[in-house]
# Entry
Amino acid sequence: MTSHLEGQELTLNMGPQHPSTHGVLRLVLKLEGERVKSVECVIGYLHRGVEKIGENRTYAQFAPYVDRMDYVSAVSNGLGYCLAVEHLIAVEAPARAQCVRIIFAELNRIASHLLWLGTHALDIGAMTALFYTMREREDVLKIFENYCGARLTTHAFRIGGLQYDLYEGFEAETRSFCESFKKRLDEYEKLLTKNPIWLERLKGVGVLSAEDCLAYGVSGPMIRASGVAWDLRKSNPYSGYGQYDFEVPTATSGDSYDRYLVRIEEMRQSIRIIEQGLERIPAGPILAKVPKVLKPAAGEVYISVEAPKGELGYYIVSDGSLHPYRVRVRPPSFINLATLEKIAVGALVADVVAIIGTIDIVLGEVDR
Amino acid sequence: METTSPMSGIWLAIKRFFLLDLLEGLWVTFRAQRTSQIVTEQYPKERPKVAERYRGAPRLNINPENGETLCIGCDLCAKACPENLIVVGTVRNKETRRLDLTTFTYDLSRCMFCGLCEDACPVDALELTQDFEMASYSREGLIWDRQMLEEGPRPTHYKS
# Structure
């Protein structure tokens, strides 16, 4: 039957406007029938030159731009940048600021994972989950809005601490969100975890071994789903993460289904961290003494944080002037996306959609 | 962990056959049909109440008592702005020896509402307000002058 098809290779362009490539990613698929022979990612459609912009702005002025790289987890981006600059000028944020930062970073992790869960389920064909995850994400965004006045590109933190103190009713609002969200998470699991169609579409699809993860430099939920308990919050506790009690969820097989389970469990752990944080918000100042005109001494720094998608690193070189000499960002999505060329080979075209979904990319961060 | 006793095997087969896991998910969907759970906002008929700290359209505050501007023309907002979109025009008043504000231009089309100008203002003259409807039919319409900044946007309110 297949003899007349053999050797006939079909090149298919998927994207850049394909809805399931989550942005403007273009895939050049070489197909043999329905099987993928090779994949080539073409990126750069959302390139804005963020790193170059950083060289032309002062340290404080560049902070709003980092929110626009991974725009679904702007708080984590801002946290990484602020920590890097603080390290450069040898300032530490006050205890209150550090605690509040952790709470917001974890809320943002939940928001990011919720958006991922909804859109990924939509790709697979389970449309219902999207509406529910968006509903809960709205609660998180409302907390962001009440706190700093913006929902998505928050610009919540400043170099040296926080600009805004907590608003009245923050604790009650966050607590009630945590309580209701635990039940909501169980609902998502009822919708998806044992759903036969969901299992059929994700089990054994896009398997990535632990060795490959390490070779590619994969981080975040992807490497944890392959069985490597690598989490910067544990291995290199920044901003006081060492004082919090939480687990790093891992799975074993490294397929798309495991990546889904790891992210669901991560949301539970985030709730645990937030609840612990709410218990112990210390009183005191929110902003350390930072000079009005930031002129760090010549030097360089690399600081990485555990963003929802993996290790987000900032490498900043200062030449002693008002502007950074170089800002380099190590985006987790970009490096995780590189594995697609390996794990999508041999899969069906429909599985490529599932694999892109569980890699969890944001093109704003891939292209920068 | 799942056991491999014959009873659990039968249970598994029943679950498979009657799609019980699928029905459980359907039940979740069914329960969400209650009207009390509707969260959709009927914008523009119902306007959302944005947060007190919301960073929206800029406003140049005036003193409510005498109608004079609060701005002292210090140019700090223009210097703080990452996009260089604020232009402050001042003239030195020979009598009071202070700077008098003549023009104030704010290019909203490039603004990213980061709030750095608001933070920089020493007299709380420039403020990002709770107005979020700033659409314009032309790009020129987004370049706000002093009068527009003092009056604020006037979006159409539709009756519900």
